[in-house]
């Protein structure tokens, strides 16, 4: 009761057109042989592109190739993201036809690209960026250097765009409740945990994760939250999820978060947060060095014990 149904109606409305589009492709793709590899299907599609677009013998291969290119299309209500799909611009609207197939959406809808550059685009609250990286040595041969395209995600907040800065200066947006609000203390301090779980699910960039969690930490401290209580929750969460980022231990991520908190707090003039973060950094590094020294001592003791124990005599037959 009282829920706005416009979002659900719009979702069903767009799904109807997407279903018809996939149905016409699936009808043709059933006529193709599905025992081929992706490279063979692409070759068949290339033959199709070179021929007349309505040639009936090759149209099933084109339908199968378009379906596989549309496999990584994702839509959430009115936001669409696609990966390596050159056919969407030509098949965007129902009043256009390409290779004998009708487009997807009605022409009354205006699809605006949200590209933030040649290699990045925004989708919901993330910024997806593509960058080239060398292929692992286990998959590449010794005589060639291959590269793969990797995707990384950072947080995207439309309110940080320049066009929103004037509005934000006139009427600042309240993101989190003040410590003196009427909510329960557990609810107010749970904000940090909620944002932590949000960031760990959608962000793959370690530095961006530390920056965003640091901004939430400092913003809450500026509203009267206790830095000790917030850090206790942050430390517990970092220990609970130690493998969020490859090649980064929970200790390294903890140090990065505290360093970011100290820098952001200094920019905001929260000197008590700066002093607390620097003290915790020093304590964390000292404890880690002590634990590493104890591990080395135990390892050396085990090696000495192994050398002191003589080998048992061979058993008689």
Automatic annotation (TrEMBL):
Protein name: Uncharacterized protein
Domain of life from the UniProt record: Eukaryota
Record organism: Raphidocelis subcapitata
């Amino acid at each position: 009761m009282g829920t706005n149904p416009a979002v659900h109606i719009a979702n069903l409305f767009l799904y109807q057109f997407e279903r018809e589009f996939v149905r016409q492709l699936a009808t043709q793709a059933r006529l193709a042989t599905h025992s081929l590899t992706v490279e063979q299907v692409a070759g068949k599609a290339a033959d199709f592109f070179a021929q007349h677009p309505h040639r009936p013998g090759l149209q099933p291969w084109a339908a199968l190739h378009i379906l596989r290119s549309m496999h990584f299309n994702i839509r959430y209500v009115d936001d669409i993201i696609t990966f390596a799909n050159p056919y969407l611009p030509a098949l965007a609207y129902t009043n256009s036809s390409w290779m004998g197939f009708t487009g997807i959406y009605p022409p009354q809808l205006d699809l605006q690209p949200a590209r933030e550059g040649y290699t990045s685009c925004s989708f919901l609250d993330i910024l997806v960026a593509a960058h080239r990286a060398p292929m692992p040595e286990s998959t590449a041969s010794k005589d060639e250097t291959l590269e793969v395209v990797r995707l990384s995600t950072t947080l995207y907040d439309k309110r940080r765009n320049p066009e929103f800065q004037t509005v934000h200066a006139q009427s600042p947006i309240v993101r989190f409740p003040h410590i003196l609000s009427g909510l329960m203390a557990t609810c107010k301090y749970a904000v940090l945990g909620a944002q932590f779980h949000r960031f760990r699910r959608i962000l793959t960039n370690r530095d961006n994760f530390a920056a965003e969690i640091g901004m939430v930490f400092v913003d809450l401290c500026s509203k009267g939250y206790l830095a000790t209580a917030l850090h206790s929750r942050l430390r517990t969460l970092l220990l609970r999820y130690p493998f969020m980022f490859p090649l980064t231990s929970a200790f390294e991520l903890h140090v990065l978060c505290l360093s970011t908190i100290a820098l952001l707090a200094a920019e905001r003039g929260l000197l008590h947060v700066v002093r607390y973060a620097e003290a915790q950094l020093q304590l964390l590094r000292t404890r880690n060095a002590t634990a590493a020294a104890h591990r080395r001592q135990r390892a050396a003791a085990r090696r000495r014990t192994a050398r002191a124990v003589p080998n048992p005599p061979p058993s008689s037959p």
